Amino acid sequence: MSNRNSLYMLAVSSALAVAGMTAASAASAADGDKEQCAGIVKAGKNDCATSSNACHGHVEKDGTSEAWIYLPKGTCERLVGGRVVQVVDPSPKK
């Protein structure tokens, strides 16, 4: 095999390896290694909208019951005041 072919094979295998790692990391996030935890968020630190605001980071009071953040699975239930929720999009209705 010539040097040119060797370099070509190395480039192709590297590209495939990077693509595989990217797909694996995206799959692990989609597989649900995180959960939404409500009731423990500090003011201004929520991850998504609530019924009273339309954007992340806009909760005005600590411990708001519907404001949530992503945490590693199994962590929320161990926190005082934390409860696992499954919110899709609670943006205020216009």
Give the distance, in angstroms, between the N- and C-terminal Cα atoms. 66 Å
Helicity, as a percent range: 25-40%
Rg result? 21 Å
* Sheet having the most strands: 3 strands, antiparallel
Report the structural category.
alpha+beta
Question: What percentage of amino acids are in beta strands?
Answer: 5-15%
Total DSSP E strands: 3
What order do the SSEs take from the amino end to the carboxyl end, as H and E? Answer: HEEE
Unreliable spans: 22-30
Give the domain tally. Answer: 2
Shape: elongated
Counting DSSP H or I runs of 4 or more residues, the number of helices is: 1
Strand order of the largest sheet: 2-1-3
The assembly state of the depicted protein chains is single chain
Mean pLDDT: 75
Descriptive keywords:
3-stranded antiparallel sheet, 2 domains, elongated, 1 helix, alpha+beta, 94 residues, 3 strands
Written overview of the protein:
The chain has 94 residues and is an alpha+beta fold. The protein folds into two domains: 1-31; 33-94, no CATH class. The chain is built from one helix and three strands, in the order αβββ. It has one helix at residues 3-30, and strands at 34-38, 68-72, 83-85. It has a three-stranded antiparallel β-sheet, with no helix packed on it.
TL;DR?
The chain is of the alpha+beta class and 94 residues long. The protein has one helix at residues 3-30; strands spanning 34-38, 68-72, 83-85. It has a three-stranded antiparallel β-sheet with strand order 2-1-3, with no helix packed on it.
What's the SSE blueprint?
Elements: H1 3-30, E1 34-38, E2 68-72, E3 83-85
Antiparallel strand pairs: 1-2, 1-3
